[in-house]
């Protein structure tokens, strides 16, 4: 490694460290606000709407964020994104200091913060290309993915502990501090490196989008796989939306945070297994089997009120996700023209995560108005399903998890029987290598 490349990699590591702690800070806020709102209202709908405010703006603005990242200094875009995100947090902090903060003020603050993050994330990921030579892309991409996972692996654990020793307002200040640290690092690197000149692309954005849609839609197997993934993400979105409300009715805030972190650590174990032993063929078979097993573990989240049992089921569920994600990505990459993959991946990302957005939109209503009432002491299913999974608060959510897990296992069987998806495995050579940083199914 030359001195110049070493210098660039050192700069990347500094930026990565800033983003790493910033992502942890964001996770602290999301977890803490979710707990606060649920404890204040007692409704899953109020909690889930926080997730909507956190994820919907980036989902809608992602294409525009990518365009801006290609046309402007990416380090400047990161500074604007990180600094702007503090505005929403400070708004919530000030409203809490004034007392009697209302739900709409919390939602507005989260939406403001997440809107700025939509412009920061594409610039951050694209910055790898600016700073590093091609032979360091894979290593850098792995670090970026590790940092992204910190929101689920580290933040719930820390937040659960912090909320037992300090007021939630101080958690916001920690998050603001992490944003400012991340921004300061990028500003310093930008000052010592100079401004990166970005050549504006001459292509028509709408024409590129149309071409990407055509490339995506011409392969029925890819379309079938992506639509199937969208349905899987709908059910996983229900888990993401409702796991904390269910845990808070089973245990303490601290234990709920620790449980979520332990569950998410299953991703690391699955990824390590793939890294050591590999997964180089029979991707449809691997996808079908791992998805079927994940559905079984998902369903087991709802069968017991024992927190150790729930934690084990969650850990095993997350351990299957790397096998699912890797199989999906390889099958798609092998069947998409390499020169058009950038446009196609943005479309695929939008389509698949539509499942999560729909789940966020309906999860609260399904839990509060339909499933939880069914398993109240005098509920319609209290003497049938209730005799198996229990009766009381959040047991309706447990029933939703059981149904969702079984549906995922059924989807796995449908994938195995889908001829168009099986044909994807027989295509060789036109796609690109595995990028190691795309994760479709996650918390």
Automatic annotation (TrEMBL):
Its main location: membrane. Keywords: Cell membrane, Membrane, Transmembrane, Transmembrane helix, Transport. The chain crosses the membrane at residues 12-38, 44-64, 76-97, 140-164, 170-189, 222-243, 255-276, 283-301, 307-332, 344-367, 397-416. Residues 11-420 form the Major facilitator superfamily (MFS) profile domain. InterPro entries: MFS (IPR011701), MFS_dom (IPR020846), MFS_trans_sf (IPR036259). GO terms for cellular component: plasma membrane. CDD domains: MFS_MefA_like (cd06173). This is Macrolide-efflux protein.
């Amino acid at each position: 490694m030359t001195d110049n490349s070493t210098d660039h990699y050192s700069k990347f590591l500094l930026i990565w460290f800033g983003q790493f702690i910033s992502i942890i800070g964001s996770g602290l806020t999301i977890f803490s606000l979710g707990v606060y709102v649920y404890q204040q209202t007692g409704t899953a709908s109020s909690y889930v709407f926080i997730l909507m405010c956190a994820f919907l703006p980036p989902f809608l603005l992602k294409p525009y964020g990518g365009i801006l990242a290609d046309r402007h200094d990416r380090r400047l875009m990161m500074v604007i994104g990180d600094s702007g995100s503090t505005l929403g947090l400070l708004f919530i902090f000030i409203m809490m200091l004034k007392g009697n903060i209302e739900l709409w003020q919390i939602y507005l603050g989260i939406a403001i913060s997440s809107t700025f993050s939509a412009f920061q994330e594409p610039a951050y990921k694209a910055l790898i290309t600016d700073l590093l030579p091609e032979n360091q892309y894979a290593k850098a991409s792995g670090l970026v993915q590790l940092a992204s996972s910190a929101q689920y692996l580290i933040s719930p654990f820390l937040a659960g502990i912090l909320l037992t020793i300090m007021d939630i307002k101080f958690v916001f200040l920690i998050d603001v501090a992490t944003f400012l640290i991340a921004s300061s690092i990028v500003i310093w690197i930008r000052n010592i490196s100079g401004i990166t000149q970005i050549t504006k692309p001459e292509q028509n954005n709408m024409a590129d989008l149309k071409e990407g849609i055509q490339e995506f839609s011409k392969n029925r197997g890819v379309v079938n796989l992506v639509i199937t993934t969208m349905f899987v993400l709908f059910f996983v979105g229900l888990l993401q939306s409702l796991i904390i409300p269910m845990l808070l009715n089973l245990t303490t805030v601290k234990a709920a945070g620790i449980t979520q972190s332990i569950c998410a650590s299953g991703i690391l174990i699955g990824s390590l297994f793939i890294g050591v032993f590999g997964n180089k063929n029979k991707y449809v078979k691997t996808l079908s089997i791992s998805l079927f097993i994940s559905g079984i573990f998902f369903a087991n989240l709802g069968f017991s009120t024992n927190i150790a049992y729930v934690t084990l089921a969650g850990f095993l569920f997350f351990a299957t996700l790397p096998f699912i994600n890797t199989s999906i990505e390889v099958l798609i990459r092998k069947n998409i023209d390499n020169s058009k993959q950038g446009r196609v991946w943005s479309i695929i990302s939008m389509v698949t995560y539509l499942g999560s957005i729909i789940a966020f939109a309906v999860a609260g209503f399904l839990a509060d108005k339909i499933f939880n009432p069914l398993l109240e002491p005098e509920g319609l299913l209290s003497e049938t399903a209730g005799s198996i999974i229990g009766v009381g608060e959040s047991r309706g959510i447990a029933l939703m998890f059981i149904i969702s897990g079984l549906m995922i296992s059924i989807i796995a069987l449908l994938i195995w029987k889908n001829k168009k998806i099986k044909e994807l495995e027989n295509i060789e050579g036109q796609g690109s290598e595995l990028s190691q940083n795309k994760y479709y199914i996650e918390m």
